């Protein structure tokens, strides 16, 4: 009798297309010593509140009331005090709401999974920016959407074909992957579309607080509340996260939306994992209450310095024909190569030369555009940024049509 060493069951149709991408495999090579990676959108661990979290966890557990609460099951909506803090934070930023409008999720990523399952029927159109956040495309994929391009020339008609449109999804502030921010006109236009077509808008905004230049743009949620009077009538579902302003390892994010939508999502949260860790939520609240502003300012200072180092290095090392944008915040910028170039094909040569990035095609719903790539400046030091961009410039200068 032969012994099989591996077992693979039949995979449900909705998950059959989900595969690890070859890019992911290549980026593993980018972790080799000596390779400077502009690949992952990874916060700088030097900014993590290690001491503060340690103290907060001790305080929560040492308290005779909160200690046992922290270690017990709790409500699926999330820790009531943390929800109240998030609601106050959003109210301060111009989007009045209460704790009843907040669901705490395991990162914003979990909210993307829930919203895909809640709102997309197979074949529905989802309107996004092209390129857009790869994790959203992955979260929506099992539900079988088609995609329309919000940047398309005839934007009002986007997704107005035979298939129903499920929602519009945008990362309006310092987008992953491009670092671009929607201006006021684009935001109002998107809300016009949402109202004209009666569509929900998912505003995924984990980077909004990381603005280190220019004036903040009012959020889509705040603007829609201006239009309709209150969050419970709003079409906007806003996703937030502590990942980029405290630490991603906490896995604490949230959804802010009408109570109707929150009610639906709470049922999904219950089915998915009952509740987010209350211990973590209670500790996050303590750290947040001790002052987010100074913490965010420090992150902005650090990322600004790194953005500047990258802009400076790009201007000195990139060959003719390569262009890029200048983000006012966040962690990313977008590099466009000459139209004949394929960033995925170049990546192995770049890794060989000791530098890595994410090829841009993966961020397009149809993977159509090959001559672009994402650079993240959040993790390497300014010195490493200079060296890495010099290496990338040398690799790109070798490429020929
Ligand atoms: C646009 C966007 N949305 C959501 C997420 C997921 O964040 P979280 O860590 O809160 O799950 C990310 C993470 O990189 C992101 O870039």
Determine the oligomeric state from the structure: single chain
Mean pLDDT: 95
Structural class of the secondary structure composition? alpha/beta
Query: Architecture of the largest domain in CATH?
Result: 3-Layer(aba) Sandwich
- Give me the Rg, rounded: 22 Å
Q: Quick one: how many beta strands?
A: 13
Number of domains: 2
Low-pLDDT sequence parts: none
CATH class of the largest domain: Alpha Beta
Straight-line distance between termini? 56 Å
The run of helices and strands is HEHHHEHEHEEHEHEEHHHEEHEEEH
Q: Considering the protein shown, what is the CATH homologous superfamily of the largest domain?
A: Type I PLP-dependent aspartate aminotransferase-like (Major domain)
User: What is the CATH topology descriptor of the largest domain?
Assistant: Aspartate Aminotransferase, domain 2
Bound molecules: pyridoxal-5'-phosphate
Order of strands across the main sheet: 2-8-7-6-5-3-4
Tally the helices: what do you get?
13
Percentage of residues in DSSP E strands = 5-15%
- Percent in helix: 40-55%
Shape: globular
Let me know the largest β-sheet: 7 strands, mixed
Keywords: Aminotransferase, Pyridoxal phosphate, Transferase
Cofactor: pyridoxal 5'-phosphate
InterPro entries: Aminotransferase_I/II_large, Class-I_PLP-dep_aminotransf, PyrdxlP-dep_Trfase, PyrdxlP-dep_Trfase_major, PyrdxlP-dep_Trfase_small
Organism: Jannaschia pagri
């Amino acid at each position: 009798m032969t012994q099989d060493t591996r077992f693979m069951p039949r995979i449900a149709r909705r998950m059959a297309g989900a595969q690890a991408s070859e890019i992911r495999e290549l980026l593993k090579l980018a972790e080799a010593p000596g390779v400077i990676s502009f690949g992952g959108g990874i916060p700088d661990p030097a900014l993590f509140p290690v001491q503060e979290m340690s103290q907060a966890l001790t305080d929560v557990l040492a308290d005779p009331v909160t200690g046992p609460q922290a270690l017990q099951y709790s409500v699926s909506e999330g820790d009531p005090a943390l929800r109240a803090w998030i609601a106050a934070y959003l109210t301060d930023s111009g989007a009045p709401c209460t704790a009843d409008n907040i669901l705490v999720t395991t990162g914003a990523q979990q909210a993307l999974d829930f919203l895909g399952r809640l709102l997309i029927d197979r074949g529905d159109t989802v309107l996004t920016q092209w390129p857009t956040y790869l994790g959203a495309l992955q979260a929506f994929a099992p539900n079988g959407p088609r995609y329309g391009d919000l940047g398309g020339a005839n934007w009002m008609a986007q997704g107005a074909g035979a298939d129903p449109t499920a929602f519009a999804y945008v990362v309006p502030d310092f987008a992953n992957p491009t670092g671009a921010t929607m201006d006021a006109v684009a935001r109002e236009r998107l809300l016009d579309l949402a109202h004209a077509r009666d569509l929900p808008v998912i505003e995924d905004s984990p980077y909004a607080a990381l603005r280190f230049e220019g004036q903040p743009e009012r959020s889509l949620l705040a603007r829609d509340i201006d239009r309709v009077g209150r969050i419970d009538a709003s079409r906007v579902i806003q996703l937030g996260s502590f990942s980029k302003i405290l630490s991603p390892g906490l896995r604490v994010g949230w959804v802010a939306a009408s109570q109707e939508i929150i009610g639906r999502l709470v049922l999904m949260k219950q089915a998915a994992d009952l509740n987010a860790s209350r211990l973590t939520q209670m500790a996050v609240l303590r750290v947040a209450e001790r002052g987010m502003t100074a913490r965010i300012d420090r992150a902005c200072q650090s990322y600004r310095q790194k953005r500047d180092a990258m802009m400076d290095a790009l201007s000195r090392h990139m060959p003719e024909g390569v262009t890029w944008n200048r983000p006012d915040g966040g962690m990313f910028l977008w590099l466009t190569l000459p139209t004949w170039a394929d960033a995925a094909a170049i990546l192995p040569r770049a890794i060989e030369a000791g530098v890595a990035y994410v090829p841009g095609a993966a961020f397009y719903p149809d993977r159509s555009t090959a001559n672009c790539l994402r650079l993240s400046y959040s993790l390497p030091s300014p010195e490493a940024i200079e060296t890495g961009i010099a290496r990338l410039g040398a690799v790109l200068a070798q490429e020929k049509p």
